[in-house]
Amino acid sequence: MIGVSTQCLFDKSLSLALHKIKNLNVDFVEIVNEGYHELNRYNYKTHKEFLENNGLKSVIHAPFSDINIGSLNEKIRRASLNIIFETLEVAHRMESLLVVIHPAHKSPLSGKFPKAYEKVQKRSLEEIDRVGEKIGVKVALENMPSFWILDGQTPERIAELVDGTNIGVTFDVGHLNTTTGNFDEFIELLRDRIVYIHLSDNDGTKDSHLALGEGTVPWREVMKKLPKVPMSLEIKTFDDAIKSLKFLSELHSNI
Length: 255
Known about the structure:
- Residues 19-249 form the Xylose isomerase-like TIM barrel domain.
- One of its GO terms (molecular function) is zinc ion binding.
- It comes from Thermococcus litoralis (strain ATCC 51850 / DSM 5473 / JCM 8560 / NS-C).
- By secondary structure, the chain is α/β, with parallel strands linked by helices.
- It has a single domain (2-253), classed as CATH 3.20.20.150.
- Helices cover 44% and strands 14% of the residues.
- The protein contains 10 helices and 8 strands.
- The protein has helices at residues 14-21, 44-53, 74-94, 108-112, 114-135, 155-162, 173-177, 183-190, 219-225, 238-254, and strands at 2-5, 28-32, 57-61, 99-101, 139-142, 168-172, 194-199, 231-233.
- Helix 9 links the parallel strand 7 and strand 8.
- The protein is globular and about 50 Å long.
- The protein starts with a strand and ends with a helix.
- 44% of the residues are buried.
- The model has no long low-confidence stretch (mean pLDDT 97).
């Protein structure tokens, strides 16, 4: 299954984004649940009906701006969790394939109390796992790009974070290209956990979400080894999403 993220139309309304993406030859839409694309218990029905009427499934990317499930300020952590729980509930009602979440990120305070940060983030992931299991929504933790405050940049760290839970893994190929660049290692270590994949390109230093083939990701080698799970193009512009779909089609015809 192949999909396109609404990120490529982040400055448009969700209705317009869905109308444009439906004209592409895709199986599902990944809705980035924030900004103009925010979903809630009041507006989801309209979007669910539109997707169903056009034969499309959905994946929901939980909000990540201003969210920190590893905050040592309990009020902020609890608010972050409640926002994610609401996303899980909406995903359940929309019969979405899964929900993508980000790991926690570090703060000046968590840098001073790293053990507390570890415990808090683990507790948050366990809570998210329990809620997801209870309502029947699959959750997948995404690996992060190179940036000093971001957690979960390596396959070993992602494995550590999901250990002891039923949370799956979203393998973001572009993100890994900015960190270790070792695609074989990520796939080998987490193959049984990977339930979803984000596709984008970059130059190996900045998470720029370029069209596939316009960066340094060795796509021919990577695509041969990726597990057979749903994949979404998480590209900066709509035109580049179209280019990337064409790139994938040509790549598959030559593999």
